[in-house]
Every structure is written in structure tokens, then in C-alpha cells.
Design a protein that fits this description.
single chain; alpha/beta
Length: 237
Amino acid sequence: MAHTEKETYGSYPTDAFDNPPSGPVGVHRGRRSLAVRVAPFLMVIVVAALAGLLAWGIASGELNKVPWPWAQQSAQTAQGDQDRQDDAAADDGDDTQADADAQDDAADQGEADGQGEADGQDTDGAAQPDDATADEQQPESQPEQTVNYNTSVRVINATGVNGYAAQQSGVLQSVGYTSVIAANPSGGALPSVNVVWYQNETDLATAQNIADTLGIATVEQAAGIADPIVVVYIAAQ
């Protein structure tokens, strides 16, 4: 027999799906607030502004003037390295100057030693005695020179002025000389200037005193004179 009845919802037996829960079924989203909808646009605007500002700072060089903390630390590190290099260079300069001074001192000492060695030799290359040896060879004490007013003094008049020798003899006698003789030249060689001659080294002090008394500048030791001291006048004073 043909099936002629139309199947409907009621023709099937009920199951768990035929009793759905009450209320809305599925995902339900409420209307978003204005701040949430505007926030993405604001973020895009801020990012674009920051990107433009960064590009302008790089192009104009103003970004390098910003006192970044890491830049200050790098500058301090570089300054410290430069200071250490300057100190090292200064120490090297001091050491170089000290070495140069030491070399100069050594050169000066070498020149002084060479000069001392040269001074210790004569023109023939023979070594001269040093100061200690010279002091040992010299007498310990030299006899003191004294003026002997009793020594024999001869005054010779070669001026052509009569009585000039007697006049100068009187000058010597007035200061204490007791043995003064006035005389004329006896034919011997005459000096070119007024002079006081003396025989021995012991007569040097007396001859110098006579020269000072008579105003004569030349005092010479002479051998073969007749008296211990001879005064020769070539020109009147």
C-alpha cells in the first residue's frame, strides 16, 4: 500500500535537541564605546608624528644635541681615555727631559774630566803634579816680607838735574831709611824709565816700599847691582 501520509515535526520522536534552553542562543556582542573605536586612529597619528619628528632630527642634526644618558657616559669614557693619554704623554715628556738632562750632565762631567786631565799635562804631554803633591813640595811656611829701613839704598841721578838724587835721598831719610847714598851714573846700562832695582827676594818688600814713597811704578829684580836696592832716575818727577 502506498505511503500517502505527509511527515510532520510531530511524526518524529522527541530528543535532547527538541528542548533548547531559554534565552538568546549563539554569540552576542554589545555596542563598543567611543574611546575603543577612536583609540586605533589616535595611535596611528601619534606613531606618524613620532616617525616624522625622528626623521627631522636625523636630517637636521638636532638629534645629536639631545643629552642621551648613554651619550654622556660615552663622552665621559672618551674624556677619561684622553686624560690618561695626556698624562702618559706628559710622563713620557718628563722622562725624555730627564734623560736629556742626564745626558747633558754626563757630557758636562766628561768635558770637565777631560779639561782636568788636560790641565794636569803640559804642552809636551807630561803630567803635572796635582795640588796635593804641589802643596807637599812647597815649604810649609814662607818667610814674612818686612821693610828693612837699615838696608843700603843708592839713588842714581840720570836726569841731568843737579842735586835731584840728593833731594830724593832726603825723602827716603824722612820716612826712616838710615843708609841712603846719592850718586851719578857710573857708565853702566841705564833703564828706559824710572825704576827701583833689588838684589834678593828678601829685599822685595823694602824695594816696593821705596817705590811707593818716591812714586815710582816699576820695581824689578836685578843681578850685579852694587847695593841691595838701587833707585835710578831717568826723568825728574
